[in-house]
Amino acid sequence: MPKQPKTAVSPTRVEDYAEWYQQVVRVSDLAERSPVRGCMVIKPWGYALWENIVRELDDMFKETGVQNAYFPLFIPLSFLEKEAEHVEGFAKECAVVTHHRLEKGPDGLVPAGELTEPLVVRPTSETIIGDSFSKWVRSYRDLPLLINQWANVVRWEMRTRIFLRTSEFLWQEGHTAHATAEEAIKRTEVMLDVYAKLAETHLAMPVIKGRKSAAERFPGAVDTLCIESMMQDRKALQAGTSHFLGQNFAKASDIRFHSPQETEEYAWTTSWGASTRLIGGIIMSHGDDDGIILPPRVASAHVVLMPIIKKSETEAEVMAFTESLAKELKDQHYHHRRLRVEIDNRNIGGRGWDWIKKGIPVRVEIGPRDIAENSVYMGRRDKGHREKTAMKREQFVREITHILDDIQQTLFERALTFRKENTIFIDESKLFYDFFTSKNQEKPEIHGGFAHSHWCGSEGCESKIKDDLSVTIRCIPSDAPPEEGKCICCGKSSDTRVIFAKAY
Amino acid sequence: MPKQPKTAVSPTRVEDYAEWYQQVVRVSDLAERSPVRGCMVIKPWGYALWENIVRELDDMFKETGVQNAYFPLFIPLSFLEKEAEHVEGFAKECAVVTHHRLEKGPDGLVPAGELTEPLVVRPTSETIIGDSFSKWVRSYRDLPLLINQWANVVRWEMRTRIFLRTSEFLWQEGHTAHATAEEAIKRTEVMLDVYAKLAETHLAMPVIKGRKSAAERFPGAVDTLCIESMMQDRKALQAGTSHFLGQNFAKASDIRFHSPQETEEYAWTTSWGASTRLIGGIIMSHGDDDGIILPPRVASAHVVLMPIIKKSETEAEVMAFTESLAKELKDQHYHHRRLRVEIDNRNIGGRGWDWIKKGIPVRVEIGPRDIAENSVYMGRRDKGHREKTAMKREQFVREITHILDDIQQTLFERALTFRKENTIFIDESKLFYDFFTSKNQEKPEIHGGFAHSHWCGSEGCESKIKDDLSVTIRCIPSDAPPEEGKCICCGKSSDTRVIFAKAY
Predict the structure, then answer these.
(1) What is the ipTM of this complex?
(2) Residue A231 or A347, more confident
(3) SS3 breakdown of chain A: % helix, strand, coil, rounded to 5?
(4) Residue B148: alpha-carbon gap to chain centroid
């Protein structure tokens, strides 16, 4: 077999996808494991990416009338118990605060001051926010109530993976209350559209919108909508969810209002969330064997300028050119935000590779020769690392936003093509099983892809497929046309196809 | 005695200052108590204020080269114990996680899955961030390391008051590491200047910069710098602190680097923080007996437009005028941010009072008569509620940013005048004791004010004054000139005055 070309990340995706992911997280300088079990440290380069995602999402929320607020980190155990399915869903992964001080024991400090009621560190906030809603809502005039919270949450996971599944993560959770079921349902759809727009427009991640099967719903929800995206190992990543909670949580938290007809009614509520998991999605949608590739719209920085200083007599000139170019770029806007520009004047080998691994969209080298010709030497992260272009400085400044848009578009189209190539309509059980089990010498980690197949709607068939193949129903796509068919598992009649895949 | 004029807040500041504070928090719709002991719910109007404070502070941090990151919520007990003074300072107020799931017991769910090592919910993050720093720092080339985290922290307080002292609060904590003590000390000063600028320029709160006495230092710090502001009850509020930690935490967390001389050295570290407590400071600096007064630079919104709709035939016209005016205003910038405009078209009595209580800087009424004259009827929150001005629409649009600046300036000057009027230089012990104990029939809650007096530097004198009067040394002002004098407590010689006051 021919020797693999040298890559910045080892192993490559083909060699060991799971380990490739961990290595990309490391070499891209996004985050690292912490000494606290299952918790991560988000490093500056990763946090800047998150800040940009937050800003875009927050603006979109506010455009739909949502307001931010903040609720307690701790939830009294009795609150969590108010909704039976809900507590059932989270009981196994709750961090529990039982004491409120430390005292000297024989072998050092020990917990003391036991609480009369244990407090759960929020895994999600329906019940504690529901308590506030029950006070804020009196009349139909107080509705709709559209609240979002940016917060950390804790779900004690046994097997963790940075960004994808961590014991603590950052997210937003929206919570709304409405006078009618119709209005609440409409809100879950509006927020799903916001998530889809964030994913496709800003993260360059094509998504499929749909609804979950009963087995995959949020604990306590009547209906869970989701967006699902295909990663490069052909597994699905759920990138955002929006839940119609019916009156379940309104009844649990006693959120009632006087209707225009003077009757007293329970409100209809929704909740919806997206998290730092999206960063894992970016890595697995766009990363290659040289590291992450950041979508320009949310990139931690857009351009790095690397002055080439070989002789001390040219240093001042090169730095002056670099700094004036940086200023000129920073004065420009890219989709309503200022261009984010870094200068890397470290005089070390491998400097360019550092930025490739970190996934910055555009790298620029500036040497005395370039300055003599008033030009720059530019590399794009979506192209090969040797493929660089000399451009006149004015042209580069004029075209940089177009270049960024072009990279954004390229990433999206690549991911969409990849998804299309790995999506299949299957109507025969044997083909279905083959699709998810076939081995391939070159690519040992094959997860099939997205299979559009018929499903009769029974939990039995769903769980058989899950047990046999570790494949789940990712969603019933919103745009699936009605179509007569037979369940891929039991052969009974079905009126729509669903998407089966392995999932994160 | 003449009857008090009717006010929106009852009791007034003079009648019962502490209760006035709680009532302002309530009527201004900023926040409320939660069912979780000592924790608050920050409502949308309060959270928007916090978001604006965050934005200003974050921009200022980044201008000084600071990068944001995120570290775990939980700190292993063994980490906290690494710095002896530090853990001593926080042991009495730590929320402790001891279990990681819930199980069915005979009377409902009970904590299960006991952790081998308890986890403390961060009261501050020196030790957990120090662990990361110990991995990130190898060489002097890695320094300085300038990191900030926006986060929630928990300090289990026995007596809580919303914004001022809550078990959970939101804050930022900056953590830096340097190669030299001088550079670290310089950083603590730079960050103190950032806090002073935030307070004075954005919050309209005049502050005094200084350093804490040893007794008032952050647990584990070598030196604590602070800004202190006078509230309307003449008590001091510490509005931000910046700590020089020497090598104490570097030794505890093993943050070492190779110097240019090839020796291995411990780094010099700093930390600095400001929190949602600042909102309490805004309330008590500017609030009056009608509610809060928001400083325009950080106000949740700048202008509310209130269309007056008395007849249905004029409704469309009035609303069209209102909406076009809102759009025109929103297109304007006020100190690099867009103008924040609310429309309140509720047809209810007391609408104007709601906005007075919420402290919006400018209220505008728009009725058919105003429209006929192409004018608006404007009230400023820094003036009496009856004092309103008719202005041509064009003039209002042209002048709104100047009006906001003028309100900002008025608030600052009022607070500065108040502080000056209640600041005194005292050299005699009896006068000092009188200053902090004198009773006044009209104002029962008298806390003296700021007393600039000499102090010999002994902890004995400091604690005697604290025991006798509940008065503490707020700071040794940065700009205090050297001056010979005698300690206000023991009469021994002193070379500088310090500021004594009661404090929050």
Answers:
(1) 0.96
(2) A231
(3) 35, 30, 35
(4) 17
Cα angle A342-A343-A344, degrees, rounded to a multiple of 5: 115
Cβ proximity of A126 and A81 under 8 Å: no
- Chain A interface includes B89 (CB < 8 A): no
Say which CATH topology domain A17-95+124-286 has.
BirA Bifunctional Protein; domain 2 (3.30.930)
Q: Rounded to whole angstroms, how far apart are CA atoms B175 and B64?
A: 13
Instruction: State the best of B51, B74, B129 to mutate against chain A, taking most chain A CBs within 10 Å.
Output: B74
The rounded mean pLDDT for chain B is: 95
Note the pLDDT tens digit of each residue in A25-57. Answer: 999 999 999 999 999 999 999 999 999 999 999
Residue A234 pLDDT greater than 90, yes or no: yes
DSSP at A207: -
CB B97 within 8 A of CB B106: no
- Cβ-defined contact of A96 to B96 (cutoff 8 Å): no
Domain boundaries, chain B: 17-286, 298-410, 423-501
CATH architecture label of B17-286? 2-Layer Sandwich (3.30)
| Residue B102 to residue A77, Cβ atoms within 8 A | yes
Q: Residue B20: is it exposed, middle or buried by C-beta count within 10 angstroms (0-12/13-18/19+)?
A: buried
Which pTM does this prediction carry? Answer: 0.96
Q: Nearest by CB to A44, which of B69, B93, B99?
A: B69
Residue A1: pLDDT over 50? no
Cα separations in angstroms, B342 against A417, B82, B320, B335: 45, 51, 15, 19
Alpha helices in B242-306 (DSSP H): 248-253, 277-286
Buried residues in B136-168 as b, exposed as e (16+ CB within 10 A): bbeebeebbbbbbbbbbbbbbbeebbbbbbbbb
Q: Does the pLDDT of residue B230 top 90, yes or no?
A: yes
Selection from B269, B210, B214, B263 nearest residue B240 by Cα: B210
Interface test with B, best of A29, A33, A36 (most B CBs within 10 A): A36
Among 2.60.34.10, 3.40.50.800, 3.40.630.30, 3.30.300.180, name the CATH number for the domain at B298-410.
Answer: 3.40.50.800
| Residues B411-434, mean pLDDT to the nearest whole number | 95
Q: Which CATH superfamily is domain A296-419 in?
A: Anticodon-binding domain (3.40.50.800)
Number of C-beta neighbours around residue B330 at 10 A: 14
Alpha helices (H) in A11-137, listed in sequence order: 17-27, 44-63, 77-80, 84-90, 126-136
Gap between the Cα atoms of B80 and B120, Å rounded: 8
3-state secondary structure (DSSP) of residue A203: coil
Distance in angstroms (rounded) separating the CA atoms of residues A282 and A271: 24
A296-419 shares the fold of A17-95+124-286? no
CATH of domain B423-501: 3.30.110.30
